[in-house]
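Student: Send me a single protein entry containing the residue sequence and its fold in token form, directly below this note:

Tutor:
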Amino acid sequence: MAAVKPRRPYRSALRIEAARATRTAVLKAAHELFVEQGYVASTLDQIADRAGVSKPTVFATIGSKRELFKVVRDVAIAGDEAPIPLVDRPWYRQVLAEPDPRRFLRLHARNCVQIQARYAEIDDVLRAAAGADAELQTLWQTSERERRFGATVVVDSLLKKTRLKKGLTRELAIDIMWLLISVDPYQRLVKGAGWPLARYEAWLADTFCQQLLG
């Protein structure tokens, strides 16, 4: 009698692709509704309806509304779902490795604008929702700490390349960077005053250099 070969785990490429497409559709629908209506007004039923799936599918794909919002936030900041911290991503490390301090700050401004363009509206949603939801308040505080950490990484990298502007301490430099990389200037100048992204990026790069370098 011929030996029976053990069955291999069934992994359909079509099923995997369908699951990926469903997840993408859910995240897109959630992002749109959170921006359009805010966090509180947006329901999982609405998100499921816009994504063209059932509510249980939303739960099975990502989880609760809070979990969904956190994923939407993370994707908006990083640009994808890869489990890689922002400061460890190749495009971020490449900028940190730039030896020329002015070019380094200009490249950092470019990265900041790309992130802000993806994330600014979700940041507004998070800020508004933080007052009504304790878990989102914690997420908001986490966002602020992460931005402070990012500012610290950039300033410490700058200090390895050059001296700061006369009279400027490391802590003050971190304060300045922490402020400038927030979405507030972006929202006011790009969304409010109508600046093109190229103008805002140039202004941000110039401001980094003027504020931090002699």
Remarks:
- The chain has a mean pLDDT of 92.
- The chain has two domains: 17-83, 84-214.
- The chain has ten helices and no strands.
- The two ends are 84 Å apart (CA to CA).
